[in-house]
Design goal:
globular; about 260 residues; about 25% strand; alpha/beta; two-stranded antiparallel ribbon; single chain
Length: about 260
């Protein structure tokens, strides 16, 4: 084993590097994105037991499962949105694997979201955050801590008659991150990367429209962002290698310096 990889494994074993799981558990209660009736929606997660050490299979336990690509903690590939459909290597089976790994910059807006469920992250807010912490590096993950992942059931989707109310990105913030900071992609704790009211923005669904239009990625339904420092961690977010995949559920891991 090379010195650098040996040092990494030693640091993990000694606690010098901690592994933080940023993934929600997939189960039949996992919320899915609600869409208007005229549009086709995704399937909820289901689990079907095949055998469990019984007459269906005496020595083994296994299951069938079904769900949409964008269910639970999931990865959005550029091809997921019409604006990203023409890039090369834009599906989960063709994206270069090194693009799944990068430094993480964690912007904490949980206090703002506690006061306003429709809070939107702006370029100005990000620039003020950078003054206190560090300038966001190119090819990094920008993760937005809202503590939304602590919500359960109906409170998670937070639906009203006029649609969902959940935090997200101001339309001006997306090109700022994608172009001026040239990030790898964004990660959020909500069911999707756009705010609940983003259908009424200009453009509509700006995080999907502009982030994927810039050949960038999205991570949704994350958790445990409160366990990450503002800077200094590394995120590994590798989706399933689905042929032509627009995304997939995945296990998102963060490597964090130990205490």
């Amino acid at each position: 084993m090379s010195n650098i990889l040996g040092e990494l494994m030693g640091a993990i074993a000694s606690g010098g590097v901690r592994i933080v799981d940023l993934t929600q558990t997939l189960d039949t209660d996992t919320p899915i994105i609600p869409l208007p009736e005229e549009w086709a929606g995704t399937k909820p997660f289901t689990l079907e037991e095949i055998s469990r050490y019984d007459d269906r299979g005496p020595a083994w336990y296994w299951n069938n499962f079904a769900c949409g690509e964008h269910t639970g903690t999931h990865f959005d590939a550029p091809v997921h949105w019409v604006t990203g459909k023409d890039y090369e290597n834009n599906t989960t089976d063709t994206i270069e694997p090194e693009r799944f790994i990068g430094p993480a910059f964690v912007i904490d807006v949980a206090g703002k979201v506690a006061e306003d469920s429709d809070f939107l992250l702006t370029p100005e807010y990000v620039q003020e955050w950078e003054k206190e912490h560090a300038r966001i590096e190119a090819d990094s993950w920008v993760l937005v801590r809202t503590d939304w992942g602590l919500r359960k059931g109906d409170d998670y989707l937070n639906l009203s008659e006029d649609g969902a109310h959940s935090p997200g990105f101001h339309p001006d913030c997306v090109p700022f991150l994608a172009q001026e900071r040239d990030i790898k992609g964004v990660g959020v704790e909500t069911v999707g990367t756009d705010a609940g009211q983003a259908f009424g923005f200009e453009p509509a669904f700006p995080c999907h429209t502009l982030m994927h239009g810039a050949n960038k990625f999205g991570l949704a339904s994350l958790t445990n962002l409160d366990k990450l420092p503002p800077t200094g961690s590394v995120v590994i977010a590798a989706p399933l290698k689905i042929i032509g995949g627009s995304g997939s559920p995945l296990r998102v891991l963060a490597l964090v310096p130990g205490a």
